[in-house]
Amino acid sequence: MNEPWDxxxxxxxxxxxxxxxxMGTEVDYVLESPPAGIADLAVPCFPMAKALRRPPVAIxxxxxxxxxxxxxxxEVWADRGYLNFRINDDFLVKSTLEDVLQxxxxxxxxxxxxxxxxxxxxSVNPSGPIHVGRARNPIIGDTLARCMRHCGYDITTEYYxxxxxxxVVLLTWGLENIDPSEVDATGRDKDDHRLVGFYxxxxxxxxxxxxxxxxxxxxxxRFEDGDAEVINKVRHTTEMMLAEIGTTLDTINVSLDSxxxxxxxxxDGAAKDIVDSLTRVEQCHEEGGALYLDLNEFEVHGKDxxxxxxxxxxxxxxxxxxxxxxxxxxxxxxxxIDVLGEDQKLGSQQxxxxxxxxxxxxxxxxxxxxFVSLPEGKMSTRKGTVVYxxxxxxxxxxxAYEEVRKRREDLSEERMREIARIIGRGAIRHSIAKVQxxxxxxxxxxxxxxxxxxxxxxxxxxxxxACSILRKAGDYERRADPDxxxxxxxxxxxxxxxxFPQVMRDCGEExxxxxxPVYGHELASTFNQFYVAxxxxxxxxxxxxxxxxxxxxxxxxxxVLENLGIGAPEEM
RNA sequence: GCCCGAGUGGGGUAGCUUGGAUAUCCUAAUAGACUGCGGAUCUAUUGACCCGGAUUCGAAUUCCGGCUCGGGCGCCA
Length: 572
Hints:
The chain is α/β, with parallel strands linked by helices. Helices cover 52% and strands 11% of the residues. The chain has a five-stranded parallel β-sheet with strand order 6-5-4-10-11, with helices on both faces. The structure holds one RNA strand.
């Protein structure tokens, strides 16, 4: 699908190529979008100077004289070594608006790719409620999945359920051995919040009491030996936790397409197969019964270059099972994407190298994010120094409710609650999605729950305002006549709309999802400028055209919100 | 100690992949606009590229060296 700007850029390139040919050369050049206001498109002529052995200023001037201002090009001029273009707005207005009217939420959608993508995200340990330290994972993962889907990829999202290992086993032990009266019951009435108290106490016992250590170790051993009783008990605990985590994720509009259980790779022998294969690799060595690969030649190391894949007792390790999981993923998909916390970087490198040694040519594509921390430091479920997602969501909804009640006394209680839910939840997703994943993020209540400026409510409000105009307008004829949309604010708005497809490509192809909130704010802001400057309903012969522009804006705003996983209420 | 990230106005943030013209936007502060199609709005002003070198006609962007912060360096997950 060709978007308006693709056609424009192609036409401009053709004209430049023609100009260069008349000069008797075919040098490479970059066609860039200069800072707003200077020009629409520009070619810096400095890099050509060497090849043409002429000063950049002269090159730009000669090219400007050689290229005619016709068709899509309205004006060509040279400025201090730049070749500048002003493009024909009329074409942009007509093609953009017609495109949006016709495709609505499919505007900017890419052609279907033949490839299947498996995107793993969230995969948090099911040992406690999800907290905001990990909040970036589901939000980044789900937003990326939405954007890539919009770009035409066939995406399946998957949660890898960590039901093997000390954490869940310890929790299961705690549920059986800790007297419920010992557990602090101040938490909320939700299983994950109830269970986490057992987990914290169990951790303390484990540190203090050697007998507990022995008991838990024996449970772990039985689990790894495939003891059905232990496995089922642990699975039961995990299922309880997972269901509640799912409920939390659901409130912020995140749903996973599938769940893969780590223990499956023990039960079906895939983890053992990995061990057998790795044993035959030349880098494999043994120490005290434990097996490891020496990754010296790959320059990947922690304390040393050894990467252990079994314990001395022959049981497998997390990364060993993760290898089995990745081979399974590669069987199911063409591309495998993992959204991971930055603490997984080393493990992920080791995993990729080990897979390579087994003859797997593909590697997972990883998106790492840094953790959200509190002003006083890192969050820890074990230590109880956390802000839970459920609490953050509640707080956001409460604050949103107060705002709605202030403004909309006419609405029913139920409707106010409903709108407050959409606004509060959206604000959380937006505040996380707008920051580049690798940037450190310190959690502040006021910032996460900011409803002004560059925030979800600002986008939602602009959308609701557009809906309101369209509601009041009733029937109108959809028209996209450039001669009737000549006001600078109208032209600016059309330009903002026309950029959406490019932004979506940036999000889906380059994984720059934070570009979407940035763009959304620009679009909403441009719409608000148009709104104060230009009457719509009472604008006589312009009415239909302006309503068409409002409708197109509404579709694109909704499209932005949809790809961010944020609700778009028609009133608020 | 070694490895990997991040440092942009008072606070937050975009731009960095592919060097280019006047560094984006929010917030804050100050001053203003509107009986309007919804004021969760709009306009104006103030204010920043961690430090030092190098490459270049040109560096927030590339390279080298520091500093500060986060993460990693388990026969944990």
